[in-house]
Design goal:
CATH topology of the largest domain: Arc Repressor Mutant, subunit A
Structural class: mainly alpha
Number of helices: 6
Helix content: over 70%
Radius of gyration: 19 Å
Largest sheet: 2 strands, antiparallel
Amino acid sequence: MSEAVCDASELLEVLWGRGQEATHAVTVSPSQLRALLVIEQDEGTNLRALGEAIGSSPPSVSRLCDRMEAMGLVERRPSRTSRREVELSLSPRGRVLLRESRANRKREVAAVLAVMGPAALDALAEGLAAFRAAAAQIEGRRGASASDGAASVANSA
């Protein structure tokens, strides 16, 4: 089963790649796209939180943001709560890129869904809902473990 899910995931990556290529703005790498999506979800996030979300080291995240800022996709501003941190937000150009990219990806996926029968579509929707719920459950456990660890460090100090 996991092989079938990985195969489907790879196909989605191909479809999304086509969708991104059709975006007339700028071409971004997969890591830049992931970072843009995280920043969109958590406007004002800092470099540390972004790094944790995308699984990258602080120097890598800093360079990634340097490139995205140079491309006009993100903006950095001093944090309102800490002088040592910066907050990240999408620029208008970054928002346009994500909107165009999503629209193009939707068209690519819709073309595939259009040739599927109703029973297959229902099964896909049900399976994807269950997959999303299971993934959220795992992410919830990871978040709880990270907070538990932070709380125990804080309590020991």
